[in-house]
């Protein structure tokens, strides 16, 4: 059972790491209102999404031709009204830019905002989606990341396909703006990106010139897997003012307890589903690290905040920054056994 759980977890992580513009000048008139997307969003953050009514006509805006993340040229003949999303991060981005009402199909792993639970599921993530179900929905656009490239030929027989596959924060911005262009929601997309950039700039300015603690991020405990260079977790640690002790490796890798002890992290961060709690960590050999000795052990509130390449990733950055520099963000962790701390809300 544990081996099956590990394999499933690594498949999801692989999907996250492989997931690891030029704006049209067409004039549009928009009216927007800001609403809370979910009562399930992290308690330490306030998420907003835009509901928009556009007055731009199809004849003014479409057809458009774009270049996607796979360097494919795709022509969108008219404004999409029936979109199938094969990546949770893409679904979230569509709702943030006010195009959520166009989504008619999502994967089993889509869970944000909560309304997606009412949308037809097309099966697994990316290449594990059910082609027959997708076709039955009669979509006019399919959005996917590189985890769907294996089934790209089959998808293209159903509808135009656009690949959105961010590898870093800049790519996430680009992906959101591209979605805005495709769905005729450019202004809303720009606002979402501007809000993200403002939060990132604020956090990085606060931690600038501060000492950079050595950080161990535990993705999975047994066997011990950690994120290296080329992962969103690594990027977030660096932006939050820390130093990933395994930045010298690429992707998600298995490491030994001895390697961790040699690098002696100042802070340990556990994923929300790491297979071990902060309290249990105190009974392991890692109790000899500076992180555990000084009570600098934390648990992220939601793994999706630090792995999905969408608008909410800035909240993951905010949470990690609080862990690494609590004094700068008025963050007060609650002490647990052996002075380790676990945080679900800040």
TrEMBL record:
Q: Name one GO molecular function term.
A: ATP binding
Q: What is this protein called?
A: Iron ABC transporter ATP-binding protein
Q: Which residues form the Fe/B12 periplasmic-binding domain?
A: 82-328
Residue ranges of the region described as Disordered: 26-54
Q: Which InterPro entries has this protein been placed in?
A: ABC_Transporter_SBP, ABC_transptr_periplasmic_BD, Vit_B12_bind_prot
Keywords assigned by UniProt? ATP-binding, Nucleotide-binding, Signal
A Pfam family in this protein? Peripla_BP_2
**Organism, as annotated:** Thermococcus piezophilus
For this protein, the record's Gene3D superfamilies field holds:
Nitrogenase molybdenum iron protein domain
């Amino acid at each position: 059972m544990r081996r099956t759980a590990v394999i499933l977890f690594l498949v999801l992580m692989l999907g996250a790491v492989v997931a690891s513009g030029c704006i049209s000048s067409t004039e549009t008139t928009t009216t927007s209102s800001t609403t809370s997307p979910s009562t399930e969003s992290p308690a330490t953050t306030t998420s907003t999404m835009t509901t928009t009514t556009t007055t731009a006509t199809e004849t003014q805006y479409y057809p458009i031709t774009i270049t996607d993340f796979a360097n494919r040229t795709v022509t969108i003949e008219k404004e999409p009204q029936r979109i199938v999303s094969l990546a949770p991060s893409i679904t979230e981005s569509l709702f943030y830019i006010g195009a959520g009402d166009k989504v008619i199909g999502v994967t089993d792993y889509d869970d944000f905002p909560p309304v997606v639970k009412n949308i037809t599921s097309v099966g697994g993530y990316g290449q594990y989606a059910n082609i027959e179900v997708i076709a039955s929905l009669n979509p006019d656009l399919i959005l996917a990341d590189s985890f769907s490239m294996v089934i790209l030929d089959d998808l293209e027989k159903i509808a135009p396909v656009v690949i959105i596959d961010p590898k870093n924060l800049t790519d996430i911005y680009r992906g959101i703006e591209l979605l805005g262009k495709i769905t005729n929601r450019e202004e809303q997309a720009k606002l979402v990106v501007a809000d993200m950039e403002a939060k990132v700039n604020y956090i990085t300015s606060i931690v600038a010139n501060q000492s950079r603690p050595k950080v161990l991020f535990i993705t999975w405990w047994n066997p011990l897997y950690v994120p290296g260079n080329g992962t969103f977790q690594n990027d977030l640690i660096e932006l939050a003012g820390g130093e990933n002790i395994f930045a010298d490796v690429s992707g998600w890798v298995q490491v030994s307890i001895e390697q961790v002890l040699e690098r002696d992290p100042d802070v340990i961060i556990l994923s929300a589903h790491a297979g071990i709690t902060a309290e249990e960590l105190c009974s392991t050999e890692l109790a000899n690290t500076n992180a555990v000795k000084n009570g600098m052990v934390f648990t992220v509130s939601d793994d999706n905040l630090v792995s999905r390449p969408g608008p909410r990733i800035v909240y993951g950055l905010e949470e990690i920054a609080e862990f690494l520099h609590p004094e700068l963000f008025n963050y007060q962790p609650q002490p647990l056994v052996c002075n380790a701390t676990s945080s679900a809300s800040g």
